[in-house]
Write a structure and sequence with these properties.
Layout: H1 3-17, E1 20-22, E2 37-41, E3 44-50, H2 59-70, E4 74-78, H3 80-85, H4 87-95
Parallel strand pairs: 3-4
Antiparallel strand pairs: 1-2, 2-3
Length: 96
């Protein structure tokens, strides 16, 4: 599964669950390392970086993740295996 296919699957799940999502349209004009998705439901706000199973975080992505966590924002990395295991659905339902 490519990262684009994975992102499409996550966004489709957000739409089904009524979770608002934001993805920078053109990442080259956005701050380097900002998470792929900002997700908001009635019970929470989370940010997630999407990676393929072998994808690695850049230094900028690690820095943003650390800063967001220290600021109290839920930040983490999702991979396609997390879709298969149900982790993504559980985390989205928790903020729904």
């Amino acid at each position: 599964m490519t990262e684009a296919q994975f992102q499409d699957a996550v966004i489709a799940m957000c739409k089904l669950l009524g979770i608002a999502w934001y993805h920078p349209f053109f990442s080259r004009r956005s701050a380097a390392g900002w998470p792929d998705l900002a997700l908001c439901g009635a019970h929470g706000f989370i940010t997630r970086e999407l990676k393929t199973e072998r994808g690695k975080l850049t230094a900028d992505q690690q820095r943003w993740g650390s800063m967001l966590r220290h600021a109290g924002v839920s930040w983490d990395v999702w991979r396609p295996d997390d879709l298969q295991s149900g982790r993504i659905q559980r985390e989205l339902e928790a903020i729904r």
